[in-house]
Amino acid sequence: MKFMTTYDLMETARNTNQWFGATARALGSYPAVAMVPSPLFRMVAAWGEVTERTFARMVAKPDWNINTVVGADGRDHIVSVEKCVTRPFGDLIHFKVHGRPQMRRRVMLVAPMSGHYATLLRSTVASLLPDCDVYITDWHNARDIPVSQGKFDIEDYTLYLVDFLKHLGPDTHVIAVCQPAPLALAATAYLAGEDPAAQPRTLTLIGGPIDPDAAATDVTDFGRRVTMGQLEQLVIQRVGFKYAGVGRLVYPGMLQLASFMSMNGDRHTRAFSEQILRAAKGEAGDHDKHNRFYDEYLAVMDMTAEFYLSTVDRVFKRREIARNVFSVDGRKVDIAAITDVAVKTVEGANDDISAPGQCIAALDLLTGLPAHKKASHLEAGAGHYGIFAGKSWRNNIRPLVLEFIDANSGDPQPARAHLKSV
């Protein structure tokens, strides 16, 4: 699999399907065919419209589309996205709300690097903006990063989080969603040992695999069945000639998307069939429910091979975080060294990706943290997506997280002056 031709063949297939869709849409939309009293051409055009959009968005990075937020004064304030720290594999970005007084809560969202862009947390950001000063990790697509920039594995990811936290200062509240939860915990422990003053005030871990063996899911079962050698041979590819990262070993986002789609194949097939019928009837809209969801879901990014493989090996197979034997840059990271940072875990009772028990395992590792600085929440009826972006997040979890932040904020202090972006 590790040949550029394999990657280029996959991209060729995607591009060809996009072209088929565009062609069918054009042929079915000619005014001349409207004279034929048959729904066939309308269905062809509808199929083409849905197919073209489906394959086109697989290689497009979604926009944040967060333009304004209502302030406490009742006015709409313009929101701009600004880079605070720039790095080859990811940036720390800030949602600057213009004309609004400095907010007391400063939140850093740690977005997953699991095949989707950070915009997967768009609704999470939008829900926090009225009450918080929001920053987020914006990871780059590995296919666009030249080989000359070197490697990027879970240790590098952890050190990126350390740098971002040092930049923001100690009056920061971290919310890590899904995949980065173990590494956000490790980054906090790293700071506890190396630079205690730079630790965040609170750490909220949402649906993350701190201990994958605490509860079995399809993800953990797959991790047990497949050897590292099989995984490397089956899914790792070299970026093709179309992108700046040509030659870089990656886990392609489209392979990840294929695995996502296969988990709920019947549901996705039905969703696209119904969308084609709606398009044929003229009932589909550019921003209807289907397109809003799939514009984000189908937009995938490649991960560096070393990040993907080290995640599977060290987090899932060897359980280095769960056993508290993780090391970064040759230094042992002791989670018990965290003694001042309040930690809260959030799990969904119906989460089939990071099942209940996996995330709350973090609290048992925090042997140096007083009990009153530990908290957990299990959301009844919530799946994986719902605990950070769905109705459960909006109605129940978000208020609890903000209460947890406020309860552990201490005396409000003026924000530290930001360092110049690197």
TrEMBL record:
Residue ranges annotated for the PHB de-polymerase C-terminal domain, each copy included: 207-408
Protein name: Polyhydroxyalkanoate depolymerase
Native organism: Rhodovulum visakhapatnamense
